[in-house]
Design goal:
The complex is a heterotrimer of chains A (733), B (183) and C (332). Chain A has 733 residues and is of the alpha/beta class. Chain A has 4 domains: 154 residues, 2-Layer Sandwich (Phosphorylase Kinase, domain 1), CATH 3.30.200.210; 154 residues, Rossmann fold (3-Layer(aba) Sandwich), CATH 3.40.50.740; 208 residues, Dimethylsulfoxide Reductase, domain 2, CATH 3.40.228; 126 residues, Barwin-like endoglucanases. Chain B has a single domain, classed as Alpha-Beta Plaits, CATH 3.30.70.20. Chain B has 6 helices and 9 strands, in the order βαββαββαββααβαβ. Helices cover 20% and strands 26% of the residues of chain B. The longest helix of chain C is centred in the last third of the chain and has 34 residues. The radius of gyration of chain C is 23 Å and the shape is globular. The chains are: A alpha/beta (733), B alpha+beta (183), C mainly alpha (332). Chains in contact: A-B, A-C, B-C.
Chain lengths: 733, 183, 332
């Protein structure tokens, strides 16, 4: 019997195809050969859908439903973000269908702060009545909507725009907006990495093995098999560093110095791609003039990486051009971490640009995003996009000009509520009370709102503050809006598809919005079903909804092709090394060295910078209440704060000791893990813990969260959260 | 198809990032409750800052050719199949736990629900259908390669010849069916 | 097609849901708890009592009548309690009968189950033979009686050795995987049997009931001397075994050295050195030596020494059972 991949896949496909005939809905007739003494053939159906175990990847999966209950998950081999594999969250999250902490019917907050069940009709009537009053008094712009940028976001936009409010907000400013803004300024968009074909990969603060992106680790592993070198620049020995050729433990917040020195070497030694720079970039000469001030000799004193290493990495990186890349990054490093994150991300973009890897195999490329069909085609009117500025100032010159208009600034909401600009808000599958800085202030802000409605599956901290909590179907119980998140080298359409009947008195988002809109006088914008909506969305591609539901993924449009085929969406149409637009906003038009905003006191042995990061088994704070995942945290002793071994020993600490962590605004207790894998100036905290909503019984009271220690900051350009600008005192208890 | 299959696996630790997807996938495939596992990932640290490294080592039943768990079983519930898989006849198991303690790899578990010992069975249901075991299929970096040792054309046989893998706990004379590249 | 109805709860545990994750270590869980310790300990006491009783009976059934009979009276009972412990420790106690329908020649536990079953039968026969009415006949030592005694001697040796061999054959557990474990547990078993007899004798010094022979001062002294002599010799051997056990582990593989750590600076250090070495070995050894060389029998000293020896016997098994499970072979 052979087990080669080809044969496996072919036989598998044959099995899947055959079974489709038998039981419809692409169900595999996996007549389970039961071990001795067990009952025979279970009814097994295989349903393609999209995972919701994290907000970001929405991996294409098959959910197996065995005798009516979700059994297991397999990766859809066709979807770009996961390419056939599934991460631990994907496997475990399906069991949250049965989580006893799910909200089972609409809830209303009573005067004593308790929650009483109410009917959907009562919820819709009361919410729309109150919302109408607020809009009459303060205008529609006093209403906001906050959520992760998930597939259903067009519905939320439609609802808010119909109301007349521009204030749709995502978690972006607490996550990645500094990076996005910098890449927008440079390339006019956010390019993707062709890791698979790259032969020299530099990751700066990015850890796809922890903040899981399956396609990225899979491609890195593939590239490594084909001789690629992987270099990880990270204050912590990340899980990706485990498989890297080289780990460069940079001093936190000084990645920019390393990058400037790298660019210095590449330019001074003439290692850049002269043709690309001349034809497709602007401002290279300005950079050349300035970069001389940043040699590796200068950088090594700042970033703690020896100059020899900087020289070597810069030369190796450039010598592999164009099949070399510095990963575009995500949250870690420069997504929203530091005062200098925007300029760090600019330096990453520029270092890539000057070796000419843009739109090249093994370099960076612009993903092929398909444009979905319009609802007007089906006779459904489109609401006007409100002309009014966003209340948080995102994209507004003079306020946060580089901030993303569509992401907004999440952690500005409490401020806007306290100042009376926001009166009512909707929170959809998000938990700003836990994921935004300084929960005390966030709570104060959200409590000030006259009306707060949370739409979620569980009683998060935010839900537990809301006036109304509307339970949505769990993702296995509903269909969602068609999603284009898997678009990379080719456009891909995927969707969340219902796998089981709903267990409780819950509704999908579209039904909630449809019913709400009737009482708000915007009913004409919500007069379709999810199937009608998705059918219209698919219209331009010539595929039917049934086809998509059967396969889980459909590829559309042209495959990406190598070469600078169309101009960048920058003012000049070229890659902007020097950005006139930034200059006009009064921002450094070229990356120049900036210190982080705060730094630990080097003469105080208790003073550390507090870093954080993800573990592969948790997504933000949303999976902490998943028993299978929390048990893994316990089993593998993962609810610990990392601390450099030498520094810890100076504090008299042993592995597993409890320490008190204290910043200006917060104090907490946590166990420590002593390690040689962390820069001495920092401590590192896994970011998925510290749930304090008593309704989440599995998660409650396990670990602490970095947000408890973080002041509310707004980067002056992008408005991002600067979540690594935390100095804490760590002491033995 | 000449010789009957002899299932085996190659685990390349140099590729493992410790994400635990294999652990989670295994729990689902075998319908295990929250606190029971058939496989695990161990972590080791080396060196001091800044000369530092880590290693993740996935461990599960090694399907030994000389399995101590089969030898010690007082009722004959644990047995070795012709295809190399070490299995448990759950009906004959009385739950004495002697086999659990005899296993150098700590690969056996008590089912708290049923009282018998259960363990990794190389996803027999799947491999009979030519589908990769759950831990193999879910792994993003391809740490595990599963296949038939008796098939000279299998990827597994090829890699075992080229990569010169080792057995873990070799001194214990258990003759495992899982090969390791410890890197 | 309609999606199916979602039914049930989390897998396993009869759909009860684990709300609070329990913190468990990744390796070294305790699977065998105090029930197994009780099982090993009581098997040791039974085997030891039988062994001493028969040995004394072979030497001189008249002179050592009290030892022979007390031993015989003790032997059947602890092992029954031990068997109860073993059965209760099974995850499926009602499936216990399966042990008695198979013989797995490679499984020490299977062989042990059979040896213990036979031992229990023989110990009951021996018990009956030693009842006061029968004892006079016993002294004449007919062939049948001799055969029972010989069988009893073999089986008690088997049981006393079995408890150690059960553990020592597991290569997976370096703390157990040394020949000194059966040695140590064998000696300890005989000592525990002796301590049981000794304690029974001194708790009930006048014998009582229907006595076959009259109790005299000389008789008491004879029996005490026998006990003290054997005690002294065995304790000395036990000390040697412990020393060899420790040196043996300490001078062996990485696995063994790290296993030794659990009683040298590790979790069971205090229990091992105070509960076993000091209480169960050193004090009885000093007391026995004092009595032996001064020929000064004090009832309370004997009782104390025997009690300590029994406590030590339980403690050492508890330490061995637990420590062994927490240690594992270094794999890579």
């Amino acid at each position: 019997m052979s087990f080669d991949k080809k044969i496996t896949r072919r036989t598998f496909l044959r099995a899947a195809a055959g079974s489709t005939l038998v039981s419809g809905l692409a169900a595999a007739a996996l007549s389970c050969t039961a071990p001795k003494g067990q009952k025979t053939a279970a009814d097994i159906r295989k349903i393609p859908t999209q995972c919701q175990g994290c907000g970001a990847n929405r991996c294409g999966i098959y959910v197996y439903v065995k005798d009516g209950r979700p059994w297991k998950v397999e990766g859809n081999p066709g979807t770009y973000n996961n390419a056939g594999t599934v991460c631990p969250r994907g496997h475990a999250y399906i069991h949250d269908l049965y989580n006893p902490d799910r909200i089972k019917q609409p809830l209303k907050r009573t005067a004593e702060g308790k929650y009483e069940p109410i009917s959907w009709e009562q919820a819709f009537t009361e919410i729309s009545t109150q919302l109408n009053l607020i809009i009459m008094e303060d205008g529609p712009q006093s209403v906001f909507w906050i959520q992760y940028p998930m597939a259903n976001i067009p519905l939320a936009f439609r609802f808010m725009h119909a109301l007349g409010s521009p204030n749709t907000i995502t978690h972006g400013a607490t996550c990645f907006t500094a990076r996005n803004a910098a890449f927008n300024a440079t390339f006019g968009g956010l390019p993707d990495n062709d890791l698979k074909n790259s032969r020299y990969i530099v990751l700066i603060g990015r850890n796809p093995a922890g903040g899981v992106k399956l396609q990225q680790i899979k491609d890195i592993a593939y590239a490594k098999r084909h001789g690629a070198r992987l270099v990880v620049l990270d204050p912590r020995h990340s899980e990706t560093a485990v498989i890297a050729e080289e780990w460069l433990p940079v001093k936190p917040g000084t990645d920019l110095a390393f990058l400037l020195a790298m660019i210095n070497v590449i330019i001074e030694e003439g290692l850049y791609d002269q043709k690309f720079v001349e034809e497709h970039t602007v401002g290279f000469d300005n950079l050349k003039d300035e970069i001389v001030t940043y040699p590796p000799e200068w950088a090594e004193k700042i970033c703690d990486i020896p100059k020899e290493t900087i020289y070597r990495v810069a030369r190796d990186f450039a010598s592999h051009k164009p099949r070399a890349l510095i990963h575009r990054g995500y949250h870690g490093g420069y997504g929203s971490g530091y005062y200098n994150s925007f300029q760090t991300a600019r330096a990453v973009a520029i270092a890539n640009a000057i070796i000419g890897n843009y739109e090249r195999v093994g370099g960076l490329f612009m993903p092929q995003k398909p444009t979905l069909g319009e609802l007007e085609k089906g006779g459904h009117p489109a609401p006007q996009i409100p002309e009014i500025e966003k209340a948080d100032g995102s994209g507004v010159p003079g306020r946060y000009p580089a901030a993303s208009y569509s992401d907004g600034i999440a952690h500005a909401v409490p401020e806007l509520a306290l100042s009376g600009k926001f009166k009512a808000g909707f929170v959809y599958h998000m938990n700003p009370v836990r994921t935004n800085p300084n929960p005390t202030r966030v709570i104060a802000g959200y409590k000030k709102l006259q009306l707060l409605v949370t739409i979620d599956c569980v009683m998060s901290e935010t839900a537990a503050l809301s006036h109304y909590v509307l339970p949505e179907h769990f993702f296995l119980e509903r269909d969602d809006h068609i999603d284009t998140v898997h678009s990379g080298p080719i456009g891909q359409l995927t969707m969340v598809q219902q796998a089981v009947k709903p267990l409780h008195n819950t509704k999908p988002l579209l039904d909630i919005l449809t019913d709400l809109s009737k009482g708000l006088g915007i009913g004409k914008y919500f007069n379709f079903t999810m199937d009608e909506l998705n059918t219209l969305r698919l219209q331009p591609f010539g595929v039917t909804l049934d086809e998509l539901k059967k396969t889980g993924v459909i590829e559309v449009g042209q495959h990406w092709q190598e070469g600078f085929l169309k101009p960048c969406k920058t003012p000049s149409g070229k890659v902007e090394i020097y950005s006139g637009q930034l200059d006009s906003w009064g921002i450094d038009p070229l990356p120049r060295w900036q210190e982080p905003m705060v730094s630990p006191n080097p003469s105080d042995k208790n003073s550390f910078r507090l870093l954080h990061g993800k573990q592969a088994i948790h997504s933000h704070a949303m999976t902490a209440n998943t028993p299978y995942l929390m048990q893994l945290s316990a089993h593998y002793n993962m609810i610990r704060m990392w601390i450099n071994r030498q520094r810890a020993e100076a504090l008299g600490l042993k592995d597993g000791d409890t320490v008190v962590v204290e910043s200006d605004i917060g104090k907490g207790y946590v166990k420590v893990r002593l390690t040689g894998g962390l820069h001495p100036s920092a401590v590192w905290m896994p970011s998925g813990y510290g749930i304090f909503s008593k309704y989440l019984k599995t998660a409650y009271g396990n670990g602490i969260n970095y947000n408890d220690f973080l002041n509310t900051y707004f980067d002056p350009v992008v408005g991002h959260v600067m979540c690594n600008e935390i100095i804490v005192r760590v002491a033995k208890v | 198809m000449s010789a009957p299959p002899k299932w085996a696996m190659l685990i390349d630790t140099s590729k493992c990032v410790g994400c635990l997807a294999c652990v989670s996938a295994c729990q689902n495939q075998n319908e295990l409750p929250v606190t029971e596992y058939f496989n695990r990932v161990e972590e080791q640290e080396f060196g001091r800052f800044p000369n530092f490294n880590r290693r993740f080592v996935p461990i599960q039943c090694q399907h030994c050719d000389n399995p101590p768990c089969v030898d010690v079983c007082p009722t004959g519930a644990s047995y070795k199949r012709a295809d190399g898989i070490v299995a448990v006849d759950t009906q004959r198991c009385i739950g004495c736990k002697y086999c659990i303690l005899s296993c150098p790899y700590n690969a056996r578990n008590i089912s708290r629900e049923n009282g018998y010992v259960h363990k990794c069975g190389f996803c027999l249901d799947l491999i009979e259908k030519h589908i990769q075991p759950a831990c193999v299929a879910t792994c993003p970096t391809g740490v595990r390669v599963f296949g038939d040792l008796n098939d000279p054309n299998s990827e597994l046989s090829r890699l075992i010849a080229i990569k010169k893998p080792v057995h873990i706990g070799k001194d214990l004379n258990t003759k495992p069916s899982i090969y390791y590249i410890i890197g | 097609m309609e999606p199916p109805e979602a039914e049930g709860g989390f897998p396993g545990s009869g759909n009860t849901i684990v709300i609070k994750p329990s913190i468990r270590k990744r390796a070294g869980m305790i699977y065998w708890n105090y029930l197994i310790t009780i099982y090993l300990f009581s098997a040791g006491v039974s085997a030891g009592a039988m062994f001493i009783s028969i040995t004394a009976g072979f030497i001189n059934p008249v002179k050592y009548e009290r030892i022979v009979r007390t031993g015989a009276y003790i032997a059947p009972f602890p092992i029954m309690a031990g068997m109860a412990g073993l059965i209760l420790d099974l995850e499926r106690p009602w499936q216990f009968w399966r042990l008695m329908t198979t013989i797995e020649l490679k499984s020490v536990m299977s062989l042990g189950a059979w040896i213990i079953a036979l031992f229990t039968v023989v110990s009951i026969i021996y018990f009956i033979l030693n009842l006061p009415k029968n004892y006079l006949r016993l002294k004449t030592r007919g062939n049948v009686i001799k055969a029972v005694m010989l069988l009893g001697l073999i089986l008690s040796t088997g049981v006393a050795l079995y408890t150690g061999i059960l553990l020592s054959t597991l290569t997976a557990r370096p703390f157990w995987n040394t020949p000194m474990i059966p040695m140590l547990l064998f000696i300890s078993a005989i000592l525990d049997g002796l301590a049981g007899i000794s304690l029974a004798l001194y708790l009930k010094p006048s014998g009582g009931g229907e006595r076959a022979v009259l109790e005299t001062e000389e008789e008491i002294n004879n029996n005490k001397s026998f006990i003290n002599t054997v005690d002294f010799a065995l304790l000395f051997l036990l000390i040697l075994s412990v020393v060899v056990f420790i040196i043996g582990l300490g001078g062996s593989t990485e696995s063994a050295v790290s296993a030794l750590g659990i009683i040298v600076g590790g979790k069971y250090t205090a229990l091992f050195w105070f509960g076993f070495v000091a209480l169960g070995v050193a004090i009885p050894f000093a007391a026995t030596a004092y009595e032996l060389f001064n020929q000064n029998h004090r009832a309370w000293l004997n009782a104390m020494s025997a009690s300590f020896a029994l406590i030590g016997g339980y403690v050492v098994r508890s330490v061995i059972v637990n420590a062994g499970q927490l240690t594992q072979a270094v794999l890579y």
